[in-house]
Every structure is written in C-alpha cells, then in structure tokens.
Specification:
This protein has 323 residues and is of the alpha+beta class. The chain is built from nine helices and eight strands.
C-alpha cells in the first residue's frame, strides 16, 4: 500500500527549500501554502541593497530553493508541477509549485535529494586532490539540462577571472556601504542567529591560491574566521562560469536551478564549490566577461570547484519562520 501523499510532498519540499545556498546565506525567500500548492516568494527585506540592487543574486538564490523543492517532491513519489513568474502584477511571486501525478524517482534523483542537507559552500583553499575530468564533463551536461551553460575556463581565462575578481574586491573594499552590508551577514563566534555566514565558514585571511581569487572580507575589522588554506595547496581548483542566454528574471531562476543541480551532483562526488561574485556585481566588469569570455552569454556565477575535508557549520531558519 502506497504511503505517498501530497501533504508529505509539500512538507518535504518546504524542508528541502530552506537548505538551498544563497548569497551571504541571506535565505531571501518565503513561502505560502494553499492546499497542496506552494508559493515561492522573494523576501525583498533580505535583498542586498548595495551589492545586488537589481535582485539578480536574490532570484538566483530562490532558483536554487526551487530546484530543491522539485527534487524533494520527486523523492516523495510525485512529478512536480511548476509555474514560474505566474503573475506579472506580483513581482515577488517567483513560482507556484505543487505535486502532480505520481511517479517513482530514479536513482539519480535520490542521489541529489540525499545531498540537499549535506552540501556546503566552501570559502577557503582546496586540497591537492584533483576533480576528475569526467565529473566536470558530467556537471557541464547537468547545467545544460536546466537550460544554462557551465563553462570550465582555461589557464589564461582563469588568470583574467582572478584579476577581475581582485579588482572588484579592491574597489568594493573602499566602499563603506559594501563592507557594512557584508559584515551584517557575517556571524561572530558563538552567535545563535539562523542566517548569515558562521565564523567557522569563512577564512580569517585571504586564501593563498595561484592565481589569487579574492574572497569576501567577512572578517572586516574583526579577527573572526578560520584558516585560509589546506595542506599548503595553492590550486584554485576547477574554475568555471555559469551562464544563461538571456538576463531576465526567468533566466536568473534558470541559473539558480542549474547551479543547485550542479552543486548537488558535485557534492555527491565529494566536490565543493567556492563562489566569487564580486566582478558580476559591477556592470562594466560583468559586460567585459560577457563579451570576452562568455561569447555574449550572460555570466551568472563564477565558482571554483575542488575537494575539501572541512565540515563547515550550516545554519538555516526553521520552516515555521519561512511561512
């Protein structure tokens, strides 16, 4: 006798959504449930007013939550039915999601679902272990299945990306508003907050990669944070760009879903990701990347993929705070 119910699928989807990655772990989403339909809404009170004025990173974060919801519903034995941006008069309503027809999840979906709570964002150096090329190829195919493109970049492009990230970080570090916004989401040691970046999850000093990829200064004017590297490795890992053909809100949702699908599959193989969005937050630098490295496609994420043995703390708000 089947024990699957739409109610259980909805509960699983809400639980899974809260584990999605988000910029500075702002968790910029809220939900409403009507019957067996979930409304995914952007929580604009959690938007980065300085670093993400257009809300692009907020919507990408919500896209990652949407992919978790889809995956959880499949694991509960239903095909998810999704309507994105269903009401032009309600711009904060990003998607409507509900369990559809009964359908057994395949093995790959179960693997992704098992990584939702285990996946962690990494903010320091990686070990010397190499990410297998065949896994990188599989991640490229994974992103394509969601309508995005994951582009592993060559050595010269890696140097350019590192330089642009460093340039953006230098400029942003001179802006007090940027710094205050970042520090707002940096949790001090012993904090009981359920959002933001825990002190043990970001480096006290700049990770020593070659070339150097600047990291957010979550420890600005403080001595918080952990060690910056692992085993003396200076490898940046596999540097990638995630792009979409367009740059509307629908494209940002696609980018978020593709990003999370890539992250979960990478996590299942012991691979973590470090994000570098500084250059994407500056119009001219993002346009340079679009035209010179992305063949006209819109870069939505810069990330390094690598292997780490850190087990960073993860904090999330409970579902009751999100409804």
């Amino acid at each position: 006798m089947s024990t699957r119910t739409a109610k259980k699928a909805v509960e699983a989807a809400l639980e899974a959504a809260r584990w999605a990655p988000s910029v500075h772990n702002t968790q910029p989403w809220s939900f409403a449930v009507s019957g067996d339909e979930i409304s995914l809404r952007a929580d604009t009170e959690r938007k980065l007013r300085v670093g993400d004025a257009a809300g692009r990173e907020l919507v990408i974060s919500c896209g990652a939550a949407l992919f978790n919801m889809r995956t959880a519903i499949r694991c509960e034995g239903f095909e998810p039915v999704v309507r994105v941006l269903p009401d032009p008069d309600r711009p904060s309503l990003l998607a409507l999601v509900r369990p559809g027809a009964e359908a057994d999840a395949d093995e790959h979906t179960w693997v992704l679902g098992g990584e939702i709570e285990r996946r962690r964002t990494h903010r320091a150096g990686f070990t010397t272990l190499q990410v297998p090329a065949r896994l990188v190829d599989a991640l490229v195919r994974t992103a394509a299945e969601e309508g995005a493109r994951l582009l592993p970049v060559g050595p010269h492009a890696v140097a350019a990306l590192a330089a642009l990230t460093q340039a953006a970080q230098v400029v942003q570090s001179q802006d007090r508003r940027y710094n205050l916004e970042v520090v707002r989401w940096a949790r001090p040691p012993g904090s009981t907050r359920k959002d933001g970046v825990p002190a043990g999850a970001y480096p006290r000093d700049e990770p020593r990669t070659e070339p150097a990829f600047a990291q957010r200064d979550y420890a600005w004017r403080h001595e918080w944070g952990g060690p910056a590297d692992q085993s003396g490795s200076t490898s940046p890992g596999v540097v990638t760009l995630l792009t979409t053909p367009g740059d509307a809100r629908e494209d940002w949702l696609i980018a978020g879903q593709a990003l999370q699908r890539v992250l979960l599959q990478a996590s299942a193989h012991g691979v973590s990701a470090a994000f570098h969005t500084q250059a994407l937050e500056m119009y001219h630098l993002r346009e340079f990347l679009r035209h010179e490295l992305c063949a006209g496609a819109y870069p939505q994420m810069v990330m390094r993929l690598g292997i780490t043995f850190d087990d960073a703390e993860a904090v999330r708000r409970p579902v009751t705070d999100l409804l």
